[in-house]
Amino acid sequence: MFSPVFLATLGAEPQVVTLALQLLVQKGVRIGAVRVIHTAPYDPAIARALGDLKHAFAEPPLNAYPLTFEPLATPEGLPLSDITTAEEAEATFHAIFSLVRHLKQQGAEIHFCAAGGRKIMALYGLAVAQLLFDGRDGLYLLVSAPEFLAERRLILRPGDPVHLLPVPFIPWTSDAALLADILRYENPLEALRRGGELQRRAERQHKASFCEHVLTRAEEEAVALLVREGLTNEEIGVRLGRSAKTVANQLSNAYAKLADYLGWYDRRVDRHALIAWLHDHYAASI
Asked: Is a pLDDT exceeding 70 seen at residue 286?
């Protein structure tokens, strides 16, 4: 099993990488390796940032963390010096996806700071995290005053005005088998397509299970008329030969069961929420 890997995107500011790493370690994450994603060093600023990182990681305290550079390249192996075209953007997505996919296939826990470099690198970092990360992994941004970063100081001091902020994201799946299926794809666009298919299938199964196994048959009959046709309790009662009060009780039971099924304990569940959540289930079954 790998020790946690710190992954970071790099632009012209090497301190974004080193400060984020040190803040993460302060949070108690035991980083075993550092991988830095960057464009080709044709730009003097990128070349200088790479040189600064090599020097910093050769000395304490950062020499405790093995450093690897991950230059962005096209699938054909051509280096990317910038990200200004659709082709370069797609190649960047592919490169980040491939690196994370490789690490996840080896069982690595990943902590990814996407604060450095082009903004599009952060966006693709988020997309890759949603596709491939599990509950152990984290995505972060570094936030500080511009004048502090302008110091270009690589080593953190107590009280420095800099913070590592977790970036919330919704994983495509928490199912290990589904995640393993997504990891089979080398092309991130194919993985996105497959991930979308798996997500939609899981969502359909989730809703079908609620209707078929959580609701009673009488509750499901009332819910079906409510969702499909938006009928009132009185109209549902006439259709099913029940009193409006009986229908109201059955729907109230359905609301409570849905809240419990989805863990919506701090959210109001009513006929509108039920219709919104089950609309596509009943539309597909017509």
From this structure: no
